[in-house]
Design brief:
alpha/beta, about 250 residues, disordered C terminus, Spore Coat Polysaccharide Biosynthesis Protein SpsA, Chain A, 2 domains, 8 strands, globular, eight-stranded mixed β-sheet
Length: about 250
């Protein structure tokens, strides 16, 4: 009886991804959309290298710095895409050979053994996707509060954002139609669709992301803008208009 139970547990652990491979050994495709990320990309790519059965795809949106040169010098696959994060990530997914897709921002570092943690997380029953905890790379009490908010948003509402390195099986990604090709909120909408199909898990180990957007606008203003963007989206304001507000640092547009 003990042997049968153990065999059953092992069978559940080695869930099939696509009929020919199991989650426990599945290939992971790390997809990184870029646009003028020469200052950040090398460190991000280096963070992917201590892994097993992982490919890295950089999808460039027309950089005019040496982003592409950096990617190519480290031996990763580079493809060109339309300058839109959602479109770039969809292009990367289309070219990916992995059974699990990991979408990574160009200014975000993965933890050691990220690949093993992802495969373990995806073996949990009913899990369709997941993400990591978030650490913002600056010593600032305000940013620690931001991290605290991210942790509880992710745990209570199962709503991680793109800077937390979202991962998903390729089959499930294709099933929901990929990222909606919106100018903003593409990660938010992807997660909303995934919530309808199963569990979204949070790995309690942090990716480390750049503080640049919080420091550029200020922590309070950035947090306020983020909340207004979400409210505006729910109220039906067009993503194109929301993006103009967000990029132009304007809260109201007449």
């Amino acid at each position: 009886m003990i042997y049968k139970q153990t065999a059953l547990q092992e069978k559940k652990c080695l869930l099939s991804v696509n009929g020919s491979q199991t989650i426990a050994t599945a290939k992971i495709s790390v997809i990184i959309p870029t646009l003028n990320e020469s200052k950040n990309l090398k460190a991000t790519l280096v963070s992917t290298q201590t892994s097993t059965n992982v490919e890295v795809i950089v999808v460039d949106g027309g950089s005019d710095d040496n982003t592409v040169d950096i990617a190519e010098s480290l031996g990763v696959k580079v493809i060109s895409g339309y300058k839109n994060r959602a479109s770039q990530m969809n292009a990367g997914a289309k070219n990916a050979k992995g059974d699990i897709l990991l979408f990574l921002h160009a200014d975000t570092l993965l933890p050691a053994n990220f690949d093993g943690m992802i495969r373990t997380a995806m073996q949990q029953p009913s899990t369709v996707a997941g993400a990591f905890a978030l650490r913002i790379n600056a010593a600032n009490i305000g940013l620690r509060l931001v991290e605290w908010g991210v942790k509880w948003r992710s745990r209570l509402f199962k709503m991680p954002y793109g800077d937390q390195a979202i991962f998903i099986t390729k089959d499930k990604f294709n099933y929901i139609g990929g990222f909606p090709e919106l100018p903003i909120m593409e990660d938010f909408e992807l997660i909303r669709q995934l919530q309808k199909t199963g569990n979204i898990t949070l790995i309690p180990v942090s990716v480390i992301t750049s503080p640049r957007r919080w420091l550029k606008k200020g922590i309070l203003q950035t947090t306020l803008i983020n909340q207004i963007v979400i409210i505006a989206y729910f109220l039906g304001v067009s993503p194109a208009r929301i993006r103009r507000w967000y990029r132009g640092e304007k809260l109201i547009k007449h």
